[in-house]
Write a structure and sequence with these properties.
The complex is a heterodimer of chains A (212) and B (159). Chain A is mostly helical and 212 residues long. Chain A has helices spanning 4-20, 26-32, 40-68, 72-102, 110-153, 165-209. Chain A is elongated and about 90 Å long. Chain B has helices at residues 2-23, 27-44, 54-68, 90-107, 111-121, 126-133, 137-158.
């Protein structure tokens, strides 16, 4: 049975030869600098950028509605949604995006780096989860309202009052039901996206934190 | 600065290959990890202070990248295709075989244990291992004795 000290000697004797066969030329190293990173923080940042783009598209769509449906109620609703939901959200997301762009924890020791990384990832996953969950009833309500309004405008639902409290309650119930359904789906999706990786990182940190 | 960085990596690229060898089980994974480590080192290079030991700095970033990276789950039967060199004689063949056994055993360790064992095999003092991992030198010693036991059992299985 080879003792580990012997293996250390074997390692020192053979590893240099092993490594020597894998030498990467300077030009190839230079070329690697232009490649894209697959680092978890960079991936999260790219996802966040995608969300910012999606938000901008939604914002533009909602902002365009009053140009087509020029009723006082619609204008108030759109201004409220844009001003109270979309713009604060967008500012917050951009702030987070810039924060992630600056984030770099690897120059610290493994334990401190893992602590920082886990905190940052959990923060992002929370923002992502609650952000998406909060948007579901808003988008559900708006789309339900838009469908009914359009149907009435096209001559269907003649005796139907889109602005009555009964109709608005019905649309609101639909939006809440949609949120209820999307809750477990969102939980599953986020866990599938990054949750398992965060758990793996937490296990590593736990191992480093174990007391001697 | 780019030229200085490329020269530094070129000079010390052995560190990166060793980390890749410990954490990856096939050539594609090794290439991806090597690329990622170079990119992270490049990102960190402006903040590198020359008074710090270059190997400690490189190990720290390389191991952080390897541990926190999103690697695909290992297939049950891993294709252990470590770079093998021409075996010139029987003694060398035995040494090569022993190294392969060591690699196979290391594959079963956790990511944290892999980093400690690599630094140990590289003959780093416990103080430096502690500096890189962020745990105390005493705990490194405790951890290392546990890893040694684990490796002994694993190597027995492969022999």
């Amino acid at each position: 049975m080879t003792e580990l000290e012997d293996l250390k000697n074997i390692w020192s004797k053979t590893i240099e030869k092993d490594v020597g066969q894998q030498v990467v030329e300077q030009e190839k190293i230079r070329a690697l600098l232009n490649k894209k990173s697959t680092n978890i923080i960079d991936r999260v940042r790219k996802n966040l950028f995608g969300e910012i783009v999606m938000f901008c598209v939604c914002l533009l769509l909602v902002a365009c509605v009053p140009f087509y449906l020029r009723t006082k109620e619609i204008i108030i609703l759109c201004v409220a949604v844009v001003g109270l939901v979309f713009i604060p959200y967008l500012i917050y997301y951009i702030k987070k995006y810039l924060e992630l762009k600056r984030f770099f924890s690897y120059h610290q020791d493994i334990k401190s780096s893992l602590e920082l990384l886990i905190t940052q990832l959990e923060k992002y996953l929370n923002i992502y989860f609650w952000g998406s969950l909060l948007l579901t009833p808003i988008s559900g309500f708006l789309s339900g309202f838009a469908v009914l309004y359009e149907m009435k405008a096209l001559g269907f639902l003649v005796y139907f009052d889109v602005f009555s409290s009964a109709t608005l309650s019905m649309i609101l119930s639909f939006a809440l039901l949609l949120t209820l359904i999307s809750y477990p789906i969102m939980k599953w999706y986020i866990r599938k996206l990054y949750g398992q990786h965060v758990e793996k990182l937490k296990d590593c940190l736990k191992e480093l934190n174990e007391s001697a | 600065m780019e030229q200085q960085f490329v020269q530094t990596i070129n000079q010390h690229q052995g560190i990166l290959h060793k980390v890749c060898g410990i954490y990856c089980s096939n050539a594609t994974e090794r290439e991806d990890l090597f690329q990622e480590m170079v990119l992270q080192l490049w990102k960190a290079f402006p903040s590198f202070r020359s008074e710090a030991k270059i190997s400690t700095w490189m190990y720290r970033i390389a191991l952080n990248t390897a541990i926190s990276g999103l690697r695909k789950k290992k297939i049950a039967i891993t294709e252990l295709e470590k770079v093998s060199f021409q075996i010139e004689d029987k003694q060398e063949a035995n040494i090569e075989e022993e190294l392969q056994h060591l690699y196979k055993a290391i594959e079963h360790l956790s990511d944290v244990e892999k980093s400690i064992v690599l630094l140990y095999l590289e003959d780093k003092p416990y103080e430096e291992i502690a500096e890189i991992t962020g745990i105390t030198a005493n705990y490194v010693a405790v951890k290392m004795s546990r890893i040694k036991e684990k490796l002994k059992t694993l190597i027995k299985v492969y022999q």
